[in-house]
Each structure stands twice: as structure tokens, then as C-alpha cells.
Amino acid sequence: METYTDTDQEQILRDNLDHTLFSWSKQAGLNPISIERAEGVYLWDRDGKRYIDFSSQLMNVNIGHGNQKVTEAVAAQMREVSYVYPGMITKARGDLGRKLAEITAPNLTKAFFTLGGAEAIENAIKLARVYTGRHKIVTLYQSFHGASYGAISAGGDPRRFAVDSQAMPGVVHVENPYFYRCPWHSTTPEECGERAAAAMERIIQYENPGSVAAIIMEGESGTSGCIKYPPNYWKLVRQICDKYGILLVADEVMSGFGRTGKWFGSDHHGVKVDLMCMAKGITAGYLPLGAVMVDEQIARFFDDKAMPLGLTYSAHPVSCAAAVAVLDIYEEENLLENTVEMGKHLDQRMAELIAKHPSIGDWRNTGLFGCIELVKNRATKEPMAPWNATPDQMGIMNQVAAKIKELGMYTFVRWNYIFIAPPLTITRDELDEGLAIISEAIRVADQHVN
Predict the structure, then answer these.
(1) 61 touches 285 (CB < 8 A)
(2) Cα(43)–Cα(53) distance, rounded to whole angstroms?
(3) Residue 97, SS3?
(4) Rounded to an integer, what distance in angstroms lies between the CA atom of residue 316 and that of residue 84?
(5) Three-class secondary structure of residue 208 per DSSP
(6) Are 61 and 42 in contact (CB under 8 A)?
(7) Integer CA distances (angstroms), 443 to 49, 51, 260, 417, in order
(8) What does the alpha-carbon distance between residue 138 and residue 248 come to, in Å, rounded to a whole number?
(9) How confident is the model at residue 5 (pLDDT cuts 50, 70, 90)?
(10) Which of 60, 78, 244, 385 is most buried by a 10 A CB count?
């Protein structure tokens, strides 16, 4: 392991802060963790402090850090060939396409490879519009589909506000079936699902069903707060699609590849999707890669027509080789099974924390894809920080986040949410270690309960 002097560390910090830009942040006053190495569920900074990774970075390092099987696969591919243009074929490309067809639904037979999730969404939108001859895209307000212009326009996340004046046209947003805060004041999740689907259909009727190309939904809600779909919702949306000839697109970028205990989040709902977008867990973040899995009928549409999609790095052989290795690791190490078992343990331990901490208003989880929602009052559900909180409204949650970092954890804290989405390799002891940190940090929020 390379040794760094204080001078070296200061130079690394200065080079990063002076010459690179950081996502979603004001650039002055940043204090980023300087990472030296990572292994399993842990990260170490250059001062030797260890952090347990409780969100798999951006919910993508599903196989844990530092798995050298991926390193070996990447090195082997680079010794063979590092890059060819996307009109050529490689073994890695074909192997990955076949494996993806095997783990997705039978109707999803072909993959178009991208560099990441946002590009997968962009190209799914293109495919839907070209195939249907329609232009409108229906999505949920509390959703995120990526940060490129089309993808951020499709999502309802407030990060799109900065570019609203240049947004992609033709996007229609509808409200989520968010049972904890149901817009229709439903008494059961199923009732919330029925009312949300009815509201979606009404809006589609107002917008002209013949103009709607696709409905896009996350397989499982992610950074909006892991808002769980009522058990009937996906099926009701599929019925709307069938009724009006609309394509159903599953965004599995964050919820795919075992994160929920099944290969894909939408697998829990037993519905046919026409296009599936994926990234993140496809390579577990080791290299950039995304894909759109395409229904066989849609793929055949382009047998005699030019498909208007293309990227310089589509089907990059090194990324494809990494993905093949990662998919093998999921199966060889039984990570989906481990996710189910650890998810049960997580839910049991969270029940104890809910009894202990009055600031926990709601806990939503599938497998290892969970979110704690903190509130000032369980009866009124007043959030510890509101949706799209301004900096001056984040005081309490910033203290919670600071305590989490101080105690040696990296995880995703947003508004009044604490996300729990560790690598799928996590053990019971490691989960307990992380939950002890979360519990200590939530004590900060408990002091503000009224």
C-alpha cells in the first residue's frame, strides 16, 4: 500500500478542489472524504479512518469494494482488445447480451448498451417515440431518472428546476402512490394504488392518450425516498398501457441487479415491461456501463429500418467484460439470496429502532433498498426537513449527517431521509455495526420531536 506524507495529501486535496467540479454542490467550502482504498463494505481515508459504506456509494457497488475477479476480467479483456467501434462485435458483448436476456423477462431479448443510466433513459425515450410515432412521456413527480437534459426532464426531482427553461418537451408528471403521505388520503395501500392509477388515467385522457408514447417508472423508487408501490399499482398501470397502446418502461438503474432481493425491482410485481433501463449494478460501479433491454417486437421493428441510436462507447468491450464478471459474482456468491436474508434481519432490527426513536416516522424497505423518514411528530408527520429543503431548513438533518460521518459511516442523507442500501455482500454483524451508528445519529433528531 502506497504511503502518503502530509504534503502529498494536501496536494491531492488541492488538485481535486482547485481543478475539478463536484456534483450537486456549491463549490466553496467543500470538505470531501479523501479515499485511499476500499474493500468489502468498508472505505479508508488517507488519515486511516475507516467508514462503513451503508449506501453502496450511489447504490451501485452491489458486490462490495475491491473484488479482484473484476480486475482480472478487465485486465484480460484489455490484453485482448480495449476498444472497437460499436459496429464490430466482441465475445464480451455477446456474452453480456445473452446473460441479460437470461435474467430479464422472456420478451426482453436484445440490449442496446450505453455508458450509464441517464443515457439508457434517453435512448429508451427515443425508442418509444420512434416506435409508437407518439411524443408524450408520463412519469411520476417523485422520481429521478438521471441528470442529462432528457432524463432530468423525465424525472420529477427538484434538481431539474435549474434547467426547466430548457427542459425536454412532452413530459407529463403525475403524483405518486405514496401511502405514508397519500395525496388522496387513502386508508390502505391498495386504495392509494387504485386512486393513483385512476388519477394517472384521468391525466392521460386530458393529455390525449393517442399522443402518449410511454410511461416510465422506477422499478423501485430510489432517491425520492424509497416510496413503495402499493401491491396493485404496477398491474393497474400495465392495464392503462394496454388500453391505450402505451409502452411501459422500467427504470431499473438503481433497483436492479439484486438490490431488492430479485434481479429487478419490477420483478416483484409480475408485469410485462416493454423496455428496461439498467446501469449501476450491471458493473457494480467498477466501470461505466448502462443498457436498454428491448422487447422482441420492438427490436424487430428495426429489422428493415435504421435504428436512430448510437454512442461512441456503446458496447465498450472492457465495460462489457467487467459486467460479465459482476453477473457471475452475483450468482457464484449467492448475493440475491443474501440480500433476502439480510433484508429480513434489517427489517427486524429497524422495528427495534422504531420503538426506540420517536423521530422515525416511517421505514420503507425491499431487500437492501431502504429509507428511514424522520419526523418531528408521528401524529402530524411533520418532516424533520421538508421536501426540497433549503439550506436553512436542513439544520437538524445536517447535524444527523455530520454525526453519521463522525462515527465512521458513509451513507446517503437527503432532506428528512436516511438511506440504507449497503453492498449485497454485507453480513449480519456488519449490518448491526452500521445500525448502531444510525441509531446514535438519530438520537440527534429525537431531541427535536414535539
Answers:
(1) yes
(2) 7
(3) helix
(4) 7
(5) coil
(6) no
(7) 23, 20, 28, 15
(8) 10
(9) confident
(10) 60
Question: 125 is written with which cell numbers?
Answer: 425515450
The one-letter code for the residue type at 6 is D
Q: Are strands 212-218 and 290-295 parallel, antiparallel or unpaired?
A: unpaired
Indicate the domain borders of the chain: 6-63+334-446, 68-332
Average pLDDT for 128-145: 98
Per-residue pLDDT band at 3 (split at 50, 70, 90): low
d(C-alpha 231, C-alpha 229), whole Å = 6
pLDDT at 95: 98
pLDDT over 80 at 64, yes or no: yes
pLDDT of residue 235: 98
Distance, CA of 230 to CA of 237 (rounded, Å): 12
Nearest Cα to 288, choosing from 82, 439, 59, 116?
116
Question: Average pLDDT in the 292-308 region?
Answer: 97
Architecture of domain 6-63+334-446: Alpha-Beta Complex (3.90)
Question: Does pLDDT of 63 surpass 70?
Answer: yes
pLDDT of residue 345: 98
Amino acid identity at 130: V
Digit-coded pLDDT (tens) for 28-53 = 999 999 999 999 999 999 999 999 99
Cell of 56: 453502496
**8 Å CB contact between 43 and 50:** yes
| Residues paired with residue 291 on neighbouring β-strands, in sequence order | 113, 278
| Helices 335-356 and 317-332, axial angle in degrees (round to 10) | 70
Q: What is the mean pLDDT of residues 211-229?
A: 98
Global pTM?
0.97
Question: Which amino acid, one-letter code, is at 327?
Answer: L
Percentage of the chain exceeding pLDDT 70: 99
Sorted by sequence, the CB contacts under 8 Å of residue 165 that are 6+ apart come out as: none
Q: How many CB atoms lie within 10 A of CB 367?
A: 26
Q: Which CATH architecture has domain 68-332?
A: 3-Layer(aba) Sandwich (3.40)
Cell numbers found for residue 404: 453519521
pLDDT-derived band of residue 6, with 50, 70 and 90 as boundaries?
A: confident
pLDDT digits (tens, 9 = 90+) for 73-102: 999 999 999 999 999 999 999 999 999 999
Tell me what pLDDT residue 90 has.
Answer: 98
Please report, as a single letter, which amino acid is at residue 203: I
H-only helix segments in 81-148: 91-103, 117-132
No. of helices (H) and no. of strands (E), the chain: 13, 16
The residue type found at 54 is F
DSSP codes, 234-302: HHHHHHHHHHHT-EEEEE-TTTTTTTTSSSSGGGGGT---SEEEE-GGGTTTSS--EEEEEEHHHHHHT
Give the position of cell 423477462: 105
